Each structure stands twice: as C-alpha cells, then as structure tokens.
Amino acid sequence: MNYETKRDVFEKALREWDDLVHSCGLQGEEAHGGCEFDPILIKYKKDYDAALPDDLPVIPKSWADMIEEYKANHYRLGKIFTDALILNYDEQELIARAWLDGYQVEAQHDTRTEK
Fold first, then answer.
1. pLDDT-based confidence at 114, cuts 50/70/90?
2. Rounded CA gap, 56 and 39, in Å?
3. Burial 21-40 (b: 16+ CB within 10 A, else e)
4. Is residue 88 part of a domain?
5. What torsion do the CA atoms of 27, 28, 32, 35 make, to the nearest 10 degrees?
6. Are residues 100 and 62 in the same domain?
7. pLDDT tens-digit series, residues 7-44
8. Residue 58, strand partner residues
9. Distance between alpha carbon 61 and the CA centroid of its chain, in Å?
10. Least enclosed by CB within 10 Å: which of 12, 66, 88, 115?
11. Are 59 and 98 in contact (CB under 8 A)?
C-alpha cells in the first residue's frame, strides 16, 4: 500500500525540478533564488497550499443551504442531524465531512422538456 500523499508527490516534483536545475550546471545565485523559474515555483506552491482538497464531498444543494444556514446561526453540527431527521450513518458522515472540510454542490439537472 502506498501512503504517499498528494503533498508528498508535489514536494517530490519540486525537489526533482531543483535537481534538474543543478544538473544543467547552474550554480549559486543562478540555481537558488536567481533562477527565472523560482517565482513560478513559489507561486505554484502557494496556490497548492490554498487550493481545496481533491476529494471534497458532493452534496445536494438543499444540504449545502442547510449547512450554511446552521453555520451562520452558530449551531453545532449535531443539530443538523436531529432537525433534518438524518438517521442514516452514511448521510451523517457525508454531512459531517462537508461541514468540516468543505463541499461541492451536486450538479442540478433541468428535468423540464422543451416543447
């Protein structure tokens, strides 16, 4: 089993890029800090740190609205389960992950037909 995280892979790519720069014969200021690609790599590292996780839960819009309402009113997570009568463990786990980690809203499909 591989326990490497996405962050580990990203950091490895940055190290390999640095090794590549050195293998091209760049030295000192040219290799560290002075390389034209350093600002680009720094930007990507910051963007990566700020990006959302790849595996955010996908939830219906009604649940997203409820989460936002409950958070805005400073309710605790457990209240959403009792108020919405969500007893199914899988749904509770999904809502809890969405509450804590963020979420994506399920795509809405227009069921109306054109005439």
1. very low
2. 29
3. beeeeeeeeeeeeebeeeee
4. yes
5. -60
6. yes
7. 788 888 878 877 776 666 655 555 555 556 667 777 77
8. 104
9. 19
10. 115
11. yes
Same domain, 41 and 70: no
Residues with Cβ within 8 Å of 10's Cβ and at least 6 positions away in sequence, in order, are 45, 48
Any domain includes 112:
no
pLDDT of 71 higher than 90: yes
3-state secondary structure of 66: helix
- Kindly report the backbone phi and psi dihedral angles of residue 11, in degrees, each rounded to the nearest multiple of 5, phi listed first: -65, -40
Q: Which residue has the tokens 């595996």?
A: 55
Residue 101 lies in a domain: yes
Res 101 pLDDT > 90: no
> pLDDT for 77-98, tens place per residue?
999 988 887 778 898 999 999 9
Domain co-membership, 41 together with 64: no
Does the pLDDT value for residue 113 go beyond 90?
A: no
**Which pair of tokens denotes residue 107?**
């795509």
Residue 15, in any domain of the structure: yes
DSSP result, 87-106? --HHHHHHHHHHHHH--EEP
